[in-house]
Amino acid sequence: MTDKYDLLWNIYQEHCNWERHHENQRSSVTNILIAVAAGVLGIIALDGKLAPTDLPLTIFLIIQGVFGSIFVAKQYERFARHQRLANKYRQELNDGYLDAKIVQLRKEGDLEQERQYKYLSKLRCINCGFICTCPLPYSG
Description:
Helix 1 (2-44) runs antiparallel to helix 2 and helix 2 (55-96) packs antiparallel against helix 4. By secondary structure, the chain is an all-alpha fold. The chain has helices at residues 2-44, 55-96, 102-116, 125-133. Helix content is 78%, strand content 0%. The chain has 4 helices and no strands. The chain is elongated and about 70 Å long. The longest helix has 43 residues, at 2-44. 10% of the residues are buried. It starts with a helix and ends in a 7-residue tail after the last helix. It has one domain (2-138).
């Protein structure tokens, strides 16, 4: 029996690590895209006016913004996949150790979190990512 639960625990931890990896990757790329967009906007604003010579830079900003939005959505999809799988393995671990009450403890913790952060708990992180990256194509 122990081997089965060790295996489940290791698989659960692996999916948690992949969740962290996708979130770190999303965060790093978003920071780079924002820094590049800020630099390009600085170059565009250098002469104090928007001129036809700035068109290639504005097109670049549009392409970068579209890429950023797609990248954030894909990273979130990968994160959600590993989160869903980890939850399945955690549920299986809970079912194997009926006295562990893993699911019950998580539900209680989630309820406390929702009570303390009533509005923020309803806001999904993916929406924040799109709020940050979607305006980039239109900033030029």
